Amino acid sequence: MDTENLRTYLLVVRFCNFTRAAEQLFVAQSTVTNRILELEREAGVKLLRRDTRNFSLTEEGKLFAEYARRIVELEDALKSAVRGGERQQRLGATNAVYEGMLKERIFGGIAAGGHYRVTLGHSAELLEQLWSGSLDAVYGYQAVKRAGYSSTPFFEDELVLLVRRDKNAFPRGVTKGELRKLPCAMCNFSLEEIGSYLRELFPAGQVFPFEVDNSNKVKDFLAAGLGYAFLPRGIVKKELEEGLLTEVAPVGFSRMKLKSYRVCRAGEEERFF
After folding, report:
1. Which residue among 18, 182, 238, 240 is buried most deeply as judged by most CB within 10 Å?
2. Each residue's pLDDT tens digit, 124-175
3. Which of 32, 54, 83 finishes a domain?
């Protein structure tokens, strides 16, 4: 398949719009349409559902997009490698690990002349990209045992209860009973251990005023003074230092330790943070 067609398809998926994809590529909309039709002919399946008002991916189209992205990334990596010069490190990370520690190290690496391409996502998705060769290393909360790969502790954090400083009604700490009555945001970290920890604190079926799978969006909830939330301490260092947020001490239960790991191919450990 022509990778130019794959790149066009990924732009269409990104913008959910043929016209915007055409503008991005500086081509006519008919060119974009023809490239998508050619991919559908080659794949033998319908990739998109579209009419005058609606646009959506078929199930086959969703799977196709995942593989198209990997092919494009591998082509870019191949070109970079054979042309010589400084090659980008292709790093994957969960948002919490990136914000908590990896970002500082990457910025330090850039200052020292390094080059990085960062993909943020959930651990399972990122590891699949590592296995396929689309990423060089993954930083997340999942330790991995897989032949040919190394899984090394990266850093340790704590899951802490936070609130905007001027909204803290529990300066001496909060009990489980009190916690269950508070307006809390819930972040889906896609980590079984955190899920188990939180299920012990909140009753089954608890309805939260705000649920989201991105920890930065939880910080927005806290900054707005709308309630409380559990987050890794590392991603709110700035907000704690500036006094915007404060920690609420647990009474009768303990904070959860969070261990993150770097996963890469065995023998390449020295290349990465």
Report:
1. 18
2. 888 988 887 778 999 998 889 999 999 999 999 999 999 999 999 999 999 9
3. 83
State how far the Cα of 242 lies from the Cα of 236, in Å rounded to an integer: 10
Report whether 123 contacts 96 (CB < 8 A): no
Indicate the number of domains in the chain.
Answer: 3
Return the minimum-mean-pLDDT range out of 19-28, 106-115, 184-193, 206-215: 184-193
For residue 219, the one-letter residue type is K
Distance of CA 35 to the CA centre of its chain: 30
Banded pLDDT at 112 (limits 50, 70, 90): very high
Q: What is the pLDDT of residues 83-107, one digit of tens each?
A: 555 678 999 999 889 999 999 999 9
State if pTM tops 0.85: no
CA 150 – CA 86 distance, rounded (Å): 24
172: helix, coil or strand? coil
Pairing of strands 48-50, 55-57: antiparallel
**Of 83, 106, 139, which residue constitutes the final position of a domain?**
83
Strands (E), 171-223: 174-175, 184-187, 210-212
Does residue 95 share a domain with residue 31? no
Alpha-carbon 164 to chain mean position: 25
Residue written as token pair 């993909």: 119
Give how far Cα 13 sits from Cα of 10, 48, 74, 121, 179, Å: 5, 9, 19, 18, 41
Q: φ and ψ at 135, to 5 degrees?
A: -125, 155
Q: State both tokens at 127.
A: 């590891």
Name 175's bridge partners.
Answer: 251
Q: What is the residue range of 21's domain?
A: 3-83
Per-residue buried b or exposed e for 202-223, using 16+ beta carbons within 10 Å of the residue's own CB: eeeeeeeebebeebeebbebbe
